[in-house]
Design goal:
The complex is a heterodimer. By secondary structure, chain A is an all-alpha fold. In chain A, about 75% of the residues lie in helices and about 0% in strands. In chain A, helix 3 (about 60-90) packs antiparallel against helix 8 (about 190-220). Chain B has helices at about 5-30, 35-40, 50-60, 65-95, 100-110, 115-130, 135-155, 160-170, 175-185, 190-205, 205-210, 220-230, 235-270. In chain B, helix 4 runs parallel beside helix 7 (about 135-155) and helix 8 packs across helix 9 (about 175-185). The chains are: A mainly alpha, B mainly alpha. At the A-B interface, helix 1, helix 3, helix 4, helix 5 and helix 6 of A face helix 1, helix 4, helix 5, helix 6 and helix 7 of B.
């Protein structure tokens, strides 16, 4: 097949058309609109960087950005620690390995919206009744403060994603040469030493992959945020994705929301590019 | 060397599994209780297993119709994503040139764009052309799903020797026949991965359908769930029955295809 053949273009046509109309055209239009006073119907006038200047003074947007960053950092660490621990557990000397893998992975199949509702019930109702039984005041009123909302989201996300990250670590752990582990065992290495000097360096590439996945997932989080806290109380648990949505479709500030969306894209792209860079550097070392 | 059995690890694993399943247990047992019973006790199993909540939730959710809508959209989208992405990846892998490289990188780069960055223009443009409906939604899924699918197919296709194509061409097959009769069947393992990743995503997607589907009666499960919750925020017994209903199809799917699902997800993530 050559690129000037008709068949080449016929094979490519459907996805080219879909990608162009769904991703490329909206992306270019979006960048253009972010410099105007677009209201969804009329393009309005060209205002240069005004929308961008405004959003740097927009406390609600900056708060959501800060909240998202905090949430992502804490979640990425927790998810990776739990995910790697689960992976080590199920690849260890246990007979129920298959059952455990199936169980830990399960939350990932269910949509974030539904999971958020389930946990809303647990945080509000179950926590309250458990708190009453064991006499712990602090279990009352979960999700009604910024802190409990934050930790609620972290718990939900860690529970959901740890199993996914576990699967990635398993792939690397099982690809690890068995002789290395056995040799280190014969040489009398303790479990800690085996982990620190044999296992850890070998699963390090998995860490770059899983960190990228967790970071981009937590940074773009929307469904779980919507169904668990809805951004409340007083928008204090609102993440960037939700803030952009509300600016556009509830305040009808389309051009302004689009400027936020462009900034959002730039942040996500930087995260991804730094990731690729780190990955490449690691590959050279190996 | 045979693995020694570690009982402490085994117990720890099982305890963690119970902890992991606790949210589902709590959802399930409380979905059978009355409003009053949930208020009294959220931990114990219900006094009597009454299906009243389920009957009410089933009706309120218009469950059969909603399930059908989700199935329809997911199946059509995933089948089209598979067909079109495999074809595109085949063209890109067999016609090696600068153009193919540029196109391939364009597809892959599109993965970096977060949905929120294109969401607002996408909805307004499609709205102008009267495409905010199920057909439009499926078309959008093809556009958003193509990147990862082409990426996965492309990797697999590069490992299939071109001599196979050539042999079939000499036997008189045209491009279309070579692809569908010789190449596509070999791609089956990667097709399973592509299918699973797209099924999980599309089945559970909430934001895109919420923007595109406005007609009552054509809502998918997550969409209907959201409206259902707005009305029943204080009626947890009905809400929990609804959530359980929504999860059942996923659990059935997981039960039958767990090996392929876990393998598909790990292949998709590691590549």
């Amino acid at each position: 097949m050559r690129t000037k053949d008709l068949s080449y273009w016929l094979f490519l046509a459907p996805v080219l058309l879909a990608l162009t109309l769904v991703v490329i055209v909206p992306m270019l239009l979006g960048v253009y609109y972010s410099f105007t006073t677009w209201n969804g119907i009329n393009t309005g006038e060209f205002v240069g960087f005004q929308n961008y200047i405004d959003l740097f003074h927009d406390q609600r947007f900056l708060d959501s950005l800060w909240f998202t960053t905090k949430f992502s950092v804490v979640s990425v660490i927790l998810i990776n620690v739990i995910g790697l621990s689960l992976a080590l557990l199920v690849t260890g000397r246990v007979r129920s390995s298959k059952l455990l893998r199936t169980t830990f992975f399960m939350p990932n199949l269910i949509g974030g919206l539904i999971l958020g509702f389930i946990w809303q019930f647990i945080f509000i109702k179950v926590f309250a009744s458990v708190g009453e039984i064991i006499g712990m005041e602090s279990l009352q009123g979960w999700l009604s403060t910024t802190d409990t909302g934050f930790w609620g989201l972290v718990i939900l996300m860690s529970w959901q994603m740890a199993g996914y990250i576990m699967v990635i670590y398993i792939a690397y752990l099982e690809g690890m040469p068995k002789e290395l582990l056995e040799a280190s065992e014969i040489d009398g290495a303790s479990s800690y030493q085996r982990f620190r000097f044999v296992i850890f360096p070998l699963v390090a590439p998995a860490f770059t992959v899983s960190m990228f996945l967790t970071l981009s997932n937590t940074f773009k989080l929307y469904d779980q945020n919507l169904s668990l806290t809805g951004g409340g109380p007083y928008n204090s648990t609102e993440m960037v994705a939700m803030e952009i949505f509300k600016t556009a479709f509830m305040q009808n500030a389309f051009a302004y929301a689009q400027a936020k969306a462009v900034i959002f894209f730039i942040i996500v792209a930087i995260i991804a590019l730094v990731q690729v860079y780190l990955n490449k550097r690691k590959e050279v070392e190996m | 060397m045979k693995k020694k059995w570690n009982i402490k690890l085994e117990v720890l694993g099982l305890l963690l599994a119970i902890l992991w399943l606790a949210p589902f247990y709590l959802m399930f047992v409380n979905s059978f209780k009355s409003k009053k019973e949930i208020f009294m006790d959220t931990i114990s199993p219900p006094e009597n297993w009454s299906f009243d909540n389920y009957i009410k939730a089933f009706e309120e959710l218009d469950f059969m119709q909603t399930l059908f809508n989700s199935l329809l959209i997911t199946v059509i989208s995933v089948v089209l994503i598979i067909i079109f992405s495999a074809m595109a990846a085949y063209a890109l892998s067999r016609a090696k040139s600068k153009l193919s490289t540029v196109l391939f990188f364009t597809f892959v780069a599109a993965m970096l764009i977060p949905f929120q960055s294109v969401m607002i223009p996408l909805v307004t443009v499609f709205g102008k052309f009267d495409m905010l409906n199920r057909g439009g939604l499926i078309f959008m899924y093809i556009g958003f799903g193509a990147s990862l699918s082409i990426f996965l197919y492309h990797g697999a296709l590069n490992n299939i020797p071109r001599s196979l194509d050539e042999a079939a061409t000499i036997d008189g097959a045209n491009r279309w026949q070579v692809f569908w009769h010789i190449i596509f069947p070999i791609l089956k393992p990667i097709t399973v991965t592509v299918a699973i990743l797209n099924i999980i995503w599309i089945w559970n997607d909430y934001l895109l359908p919420s923007l595109v589907i406005n007609t009552p009666g054509s809502e998918t499960i997550p969409l209907k769930m959201f409206f259902f919750f707005g009305e029943y925020t204080k009626q947890w017994h009905l809400a929990l029955a609804g959530l359980t209903l929504a999860i059942v199809p996923v659990i059935v799917f997981y039960f039958f295809a767990q090996r392929e699902i876990i393998k598909g997800v790990s292949d998709g993530a590691v590549k």
